[in-house]
Amino acid sequence: IVKATNPAGGTGFNFTGDLGPFSLDDGGQQPFTGLPSGDYDITEVASVGWLLAYVTCQGGGYTLTPGGVTVHLDPGENITCTFTNQQLPLVLELSKGVNGPTSVTMPGGSGQVSYTVAYTSTAVVTGTAVFTDTPSIDVGGVVCSDLTPATLGPGQSGSQVVDCAVTITPDLCVELTATLNNTVVADFSPLDGFGAGAPTVTITVPPSDPNNPLCNPQFSIVLTKTVGLDANSCASTDELALPVGGDDVTYCYTVLNTGNLTMTTHSLVDSELGTILSDFPYALSPGSSVFVTQTAFVDVTTVNIGTWTASNPPGGGLPPGEAMATDTATVTVVAPDPAIVLTKTVGLDANACATTDMITVPSGGVDVTYCYTVQNTGNITMTVHDLV
Length: 388
What we know:
Layout: E1 2-6, E2 13-17, E3 22-24, E4 38-44, E5 50-58, E6 61-65, E7 68-73, E8 80-87, E9 92-98, E10 103-105, E11 110-121, E12 127-137, E13 141-144, E14 150-152, E15 157-167, E16 176-189, E17 193-196, E18 201-205, E19 221-228, E20 239-242, E21 247-257, E22 263-270, E23 274-284, E24 289-298, E25 302-312, E26 321-333, E27 340-347, E28 369-376
Parallel strand pairs: 1-8, 10-18, 20-26
Antiparallel strand pairs: 2-3, 2-4, 4-7, 5-8, 6-7, 9-11, 11-15, 12-14, 12-16, 13-15, 16-17, 16-18, 19-21, 21-24, 22-23, 22-25, 25-26, 27-28
């Protein structure tokens, strides 16, 4: 019986059968002499990491059997049977699992995910596994603990825990979702490397301040427009009456920020006075108000419409947007109403106005005095007069 291995160098192959137990290494032989004719069973005991690839015999008849051969020895024959073994692939089995749920929530964006890496050597030689752990995450960062090299003999197993620290900066308003992946590769010297992944872990990070105004910006203002005669203060009413001829009046525009964000840029247009403010910079915080006054001469009844626009332009550090509000003020001016009443009397006294408009004079005539009395019954002063 001859032993051959591929690759060469295999040792410790055991045999049983009709010729008794024996052991051979690669290239070894076990002769049996002086045997009587007959059938002889020779079976190789299965060896870890090796496969009995084939058995061939020369010099006589034989029948292959599971794991061996039956030699049919006739008188005068010399039969040589060669058992050839093929080494099985040298394997380090790796498995990797998550210690805990594969979907976790991390308030604040910091936490730990733990894995267990298990390994078993199915090699026929002792080797040392050097592990490389490669974590990745699509949002934030992750740092994992190192795996210690492991020396394993044939059939030996082991496991280690990998702790991964996850750091994700929470968004102010939006919930973040990250996917954590992790792959372990082992170089099992003198064997080749083997790798194993693990179920991905989905990490949810709640927003840090979902009630912050920046998350739900509301742009809203209220404009109150009043009118009065005092140029140094805001009046309390939006209506004013002026006598004929008009007067200087002061309009007051007061804007109140009723939204939840500071608004930084302001424009004010009056339907009668034109543009008063144009992109004026002023930080108007929520709940705060500010006013602008404008003085004008009004001599006819006027209804003014004021339009205030408050905004945050893009790129200014605050959510962009705008709010607009309008209000009116009315100045009523009494319209000119010229009117007079003329009373004409006649009498004999040249130094006084008579009280009657009819007298009787004697025949031949006499000097009389007419008196013309005019009364201004209108609402304006009359400065030029004609009497015919």
